[in-house]
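Notes continue from the previous slide.

Worked example: a multi-chain complex. Inputs as given:
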Amino acid sequence: MRPLPQPAREAMTLAPVLHALGDPVRLELTRRAKDHPESTCAALAEGLEVPLSTLTNHWRILREAGVITMTVDGRHRRIRVRADELGERFPGVLEPILRVAEEEPL
Amino acid sequence: MRPLPQPAREAMTLAPVLHALGDPVRLELTRRAKDHPESTCAALAEGLEVPLSTLTNHWRILREAGVITMTVDGRHRRIRVRADELGERFPGVLEPILRVAEEEPL
């Protein structure tokens, strides 16, 4: 299992994180990933009517902003929200966003 | 003084708000506007090396997402962050974002 490239915690900045979360599909993917750690990309995207290439792009944006870690596990890619690191770097930012997203269905 | 078109509080959704805040210049403009209510666009953009057309676009994105109210006051446009409405619609989201932005200079 190897993680794909991602910014170190110290290199994260807020605007790209907000940009990454500022899309309804990416927000929903992040919400689901937070609730189901180490799920595969495919499982997390279930039921979303989004082309695979768009999904791939969404995951990349989330990973490059520092929101998620993506690990290659054989043929699967597993996702984990970097909640602890985000919390240290941007205290109090992630939780209310995911709470509101939960009540605002896609 | 008349306000330019903006979404009603009930019509706001989270992703466009995060998208609007997910740009370093827009985040900084919002932070300044929050600290200096009813300032003009020009005053709030002071010192930012951003072309006027880009700034106009930034203010429009913030307004259309519901982050700010823009009021035409003669030749000026005055900005107010819709902090109360954002707080009612998206509890706890705005404050930590602006707090982090404050510590993360542009």
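Summary box: The interface with chain B takes residues 13-24, 27, 90-93, 95-97, 99-101, 104 of chain A (CB under 8 Å). The first helix of chain A runs from residue 14 to 21.
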